[in-house]
Every structure is written in C-alpha cells, then in structure tokens.
C-alpha cells in the first residue's frame, strides 16, 4: 500500500506541470490579449527540444523536467531502501571501486541503499570502503563463466533468485546496474517508479526501423518490423521489487526457451528486456542522460547533464573469452 502511494506521489509531482499548464490555458481564455500573452509565457514547457512523455503517458526524465528539492522533500519522510545489483565478474572487477565511489556521491543520496555485488572474485570487492549512513554492501559469490555472453544470459536468473530469497524482504525498489559505469551527477528518487527503463544513447534519434531488436521469429525476444516503442539499454533498469521480479522471471524463462532451441538473441538479455518492455510498458523512462556512452562525447546539445555513463575500455581485453 505504501509503495502504491509512493508511485502515485511521484506521478502527481511530475504530472503536476502538465495539469497546471492545462488549468492555466483554461483560465487564460478569459483574460485580455495582453494578459494572455503573459500567461502563455508562464505556461511554456521547460523542455521543448526533447520528448518528455510517452504515447502511453509515462514521463521521460530529463534535466529541467523536475524540481530536485520538491522530489527530495516528497520522499524524505519515507524510510525507503533501494536494492542495487552489480555484476563484477573476471576482469570487470577493476571497474567496481570507481562505480561504488561515484554512487556514494550521486546515487539515491539520502536514501537507504543495499548494494549486492555478484562476483566470482570476492577478494577483489572493496568491502572496507566507507559508505554513507543507511548504505550497505553484500557480496554474492557466483561461478566463473566460460563466455562473457554467459554473464549476460545468467544475470536475469541470478537477480530473480536474489529477489525471491532475500531482496523482497529488505527493499522497496531495486535497480540493476552494469559495473563498467560511472555516476557524474544526481540520480535520485526522480528515477523511482513501478517499472523503469533507460533509453539507449545511440538510438534515441534514429527511426524505429533501425533499432537493433531481435528480428528472428525463432527467438522469444522477437519483435516484428514496425513494432516497438524505444530501444532500451540494459545498463540500468529497475522499479518496484515485485515488478522487477516479474521482469527477470519472464526474461529468464524466455532465455531458457531460446537456449533449449539452440538460439541466442542478438543482444542476449538486452534483447529479451526490450521484448518485455514492449509488451509491458515502463511507467517511467530515463533519458539518455542516465545511461550515456562516453564514446559519444559531449557534443549532443539536448544532453544538458550526463548523470551516468559507460566508461571507455578495451572490450576485447576485459571480456577475456571470445
């Protein structure tokens, strides 16, 4: 019940501007032409250069579309816990310290955060690093995988199991992060919602026909041509614990069906994530500010603030296996 209220609260805060604009328009029809011009200036949306709401009326979070103080004040009285999963396997453990260090500065500051680090090298986890009040780190041992793709394929299964065994008792929300990422700016409760996905930074301006969906009908991740909404990146996704559990359970089942059929989706679990979010619309979308790629540089004029980005690396070297 509390979570339903929280979801409604965030939606009301972020939708309030839209309602305010509508009321302002209705009121302005009774004003003089001069007053109407002034009113119109006040009612102009903050961002007109980007899409800020989906066709199914879910907000898309960009810099300038929310007031951080209002959002923080709305959540201050709740004792929320955000479970945060990170997979650091093999050479990818080298990215873990920088991710956690930056998260302590920018990720859900002021809220309780429980990091779950899934790794085959527990001794490489910086368990002694200083964390903020209400923030904890738990190491979850996983086997070493033969192929880097196997890490991607197994992630949904491991998150589902962790939710069922202990996360569901300890957290209100969960976010699943890639380890080779860095926080640069605020990622706070404005990102919370029942089901949250991030728009891929390389595909938000291209036509849908160019999205790298799985197009083979033999795969459970198949999305037909001329279907789909956005292309989402698997570097960060989340939501209420029960909603993410449904997502991971479905994706795991579909991954296992593909494996039984001798099929591997074009982008492994990301392909299955996109299928799930096509069929089950996210209630909130994070703009590419929340999942930027450092290879894209800083030239995109619509990106006012890079909040979370993937680091530049030699993928062939860190992946170890072909």
UniProtKB/TrEMBL annotation:
<feature type="binding site">
    <location>
        <position position="200"/>
    </location>
    <ligand>
        <name>an alpha-L-fucosyl-(1-&gt;2)-beta-D-galactosyl derivative</name>
    </ligand>
</feature>
<dbReference type="Pfam" id="PF03414">
    <property type="entry name" value="Glyco_transf_6"/>
</dbReference>
<keyword id="KW-0808">Transferase</keyword>
<dbReference type="GO" id="GO:0005794">
    <property type="term" value="C:Golgi apparatus"/>
</dbReference>
<feature type="binding site">
    <location>
        <position position="178"/>
    </location>
    <ligand>
        <name>Mn(2+)</name>
    </ligand>
</feature>
<feature type="binding site">
    <location>
        <position position="293"/>
    </location>
    <ligand>
        <name>an alpha-L-fucosyl-(1-&gt;2)-beta-D-galactosyl derivative</name>
    </ligand>
</feature>
<dbReference type="GO" id="GO:0031982">
    <property type="term" value="C:vesicle"/>
</dbReference>
<comment type="similarity">
    <text>Belongs to the glycosyltransferase 6 family.</text>
</comment>
<feature type="transmembrane region" description="Helical">
    <location>
        <begin position="7"/>
        <end position="27"/>
    </location>
</feature>
<feature type="binding site">
    <location>
        <begin position="87"/>
        <end position="89"/>
    </location>
    <ligand>
        <name>UDP-N-acetyl-alpha-D-galactosamine</name>
    </ligand>
</feature>
<protein>
    <recommendedName>
        <fullName>Globoside alpha-1,3-N-acetylgalactosaminyltransferase 1-like</fullName>
    </recommendedName>
</protein>
<keyword id="KW-0735">Signal-anchor</keyword>
<keyword id="KW-1133">Transmembrane helix</keyword>
<keyword id="KW-0472">Membrane</keyword>
<keyword id="KW-0464">Manganese</keyword>
<dbReference type="InterPro" id="IPR005076">
    <property type="entry name" value="Glyco_trans_6"/>
</dbReference>
<feature type="binding site">
    <location>
        <begin position="178"/>
        <end position="180"/>
    </location>
    <ligand>
        <name>UDP-N-acetyl-alpha-D-galactosamine</name>
    </ligand>
</feature>
<feature type="binding site">
    <location>
        <position position="270"/>
    </location>
    <ligand>
        <name>an alpha-L-fucosyl-(1-&gt;2)-beta-D-galactosyl derivative</name>
    </ligand>
</feature>
<dbReference type="InterPro" id="IPR029044">
    <property type="entry name" value="Nucleotide-diphossugar_trans"/>
</dbReference>
<keyword id="KW-0812">Transmembrane</keyword>
<dbReference type="GO" id="GO:0016758">
    <property type="term" value="F:hexosyltransferase activity"/>
</dbReference>
<feature type="binding site">
    <location>
        <position position="92"/>
    </location>
    <ligand>
        <name>UDP-N-acetyl-alpha-D-galactosamine</name>
    </ligand>
</feature>
<dbReference type="GO" id="GO:0016020">
    <property type="term" value="C:membrane"/>
</dbReference>
<dbReference type="GO" id="GO:0005975">
    <property type="term" value="P:carbohydrate metabolic process"/>
</dbReference>
<dbReference type="GO" id="GO:0046872">
    <property type="term" value="F:metal ion binding"/>
</dbReference>
<feature type="active site" description="Nucleophile">
    <location>
        <position position="270"/>
    </location>
</feature>
<keyword id="KW-0328">Glycosyltransferase</keyword>
<feature type="binding site">
    <location>
        <position position="180"/>
    </location>
    <ligand>
        <name>Mn(2+)</name>
    </ligand>
</feature>
<keyword id="KW-0479">Metal-binding</keyword>
């Amino acid at each position: 019940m509390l979570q339903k209220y929280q979801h409604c609260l965030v939606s009301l805060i972020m939708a309030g501007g839209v309602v305010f604009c509508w009321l302002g328009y209705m009121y302005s029809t009774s004003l003089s032409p001069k007053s109407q011009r002034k009113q119109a200036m006040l009612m102009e949306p903050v961002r007109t250069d980007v899409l800020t709401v989906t066709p199914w009326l879910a907000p898309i979070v960009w810099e300038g579309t929310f007031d951080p103080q209002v959002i923080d004040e709305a959540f201050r009285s709740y004792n929320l816990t955000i479970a945060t999963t990170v997979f650091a396997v093999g050479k990818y453990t080298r990215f873990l310290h920088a991710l956690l260090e930056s998260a302590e500065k920018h990720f859900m500051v002021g809220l309780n955060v429980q990091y779950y680090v899934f790794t085959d090298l527990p001794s490489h986890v910086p368990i002694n690093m200083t964390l903020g009040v209400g923030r904890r780190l738990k190491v979850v041992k996983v086997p070493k995988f033969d192929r880097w793709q196997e890490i991607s394929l197994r992630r949904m299964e491991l998150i589902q199991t962790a939710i069922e065994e202990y996360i569901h008792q300890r957290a209100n929300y969960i976010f699943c992060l890639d380890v080779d990422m860095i926080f640069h700016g605020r990622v706070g409760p404005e990102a919370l919602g029942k089901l949250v996905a991030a728009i891929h930074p390389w595909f938000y301006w291209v036509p849908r026909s160019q999205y790298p969906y799985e197009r083979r009908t033999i795969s459970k991740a198949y999305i037909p041509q001329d279907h789909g909404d956005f292309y989402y990146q698997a570097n960060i996704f989340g939501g209420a614990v029960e909603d993410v559990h449904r997502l991971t359970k479905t994706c795991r089942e579909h991954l296992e069906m593909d494996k039984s059929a001798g099929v591997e989706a074009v982008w492994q679990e990301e392909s299955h994530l996109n299928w799930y979010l096509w069929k089950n619309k996210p209630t909130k979308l994070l703009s590419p500010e929340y999942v930027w790629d450092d290879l894209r540089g800083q030239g995109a004029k619509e990106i006012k603030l890079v909040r979370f980005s993937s680091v530049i690396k030699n993928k062939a070297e860190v992946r170890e296996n072909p």
